[in-house]
Design goal:
Number of helices: 9
Number of strands: 0
Order of helices and strands: HHHHHHHHH
Distance between the termini: 52 Å
Structural class: mainly alpha
Helix content: over 70%
Radius of gyration: 19 Å
Shape: elongated
Length: 194
Amino acid sequence: MPWIRETVRSLLRERLLDTARDLVAADGFDRLRMTQIAALAGVSRQTVYNEFGSKDALGEALFRRELELCLTGIEQQLDDHPGDPRAAAEAAALFTLRLAGRNPLVKAMLTATRDGEDGLLSYLTTRAGSAFTTATAMLDGHAATAWPAIDPDARELAIDTAVRLTASHIVQGTDDPAAAARRIAEVFVRVAGA
């Protein structure tokens, strides 16, 4: 029964990621050790390495899982405003900024840089290409369906700009997420011509 084996492996992977997320949130990525994850998850260190291969790959898996959760929430925000590109962009940006503000993994990423550690921040900065590609592809697919009258080139540019502005606000921090979301939405509709 291969589906049982796959289900068990999926549950194990999620447990390992949950454990790693808690440890990173508490102590930072640079202090994370595979042996800690194994001990807290009740598995061998080799099991953790078999699942992820390396600490770097584990970090990428952590980031990807958080990105997927964020994109699911963004999609819901967009679905809640089907006929209004400005309201949809503002709601999506606000959701993302608020989520990042209360997400312990994101906080650990940003705090680590203040302590001179690189940790996971590179997934929002120097290694953000695949995250941006994933986010823009999802958003472009949604926007093409929801707002077909927007010129495809303008739509693509507007989405890329909104994604990069939102990421910048996450990294730099913002005192007023609602005001930042309004500005991001304004840029989106102006660039898109919506």
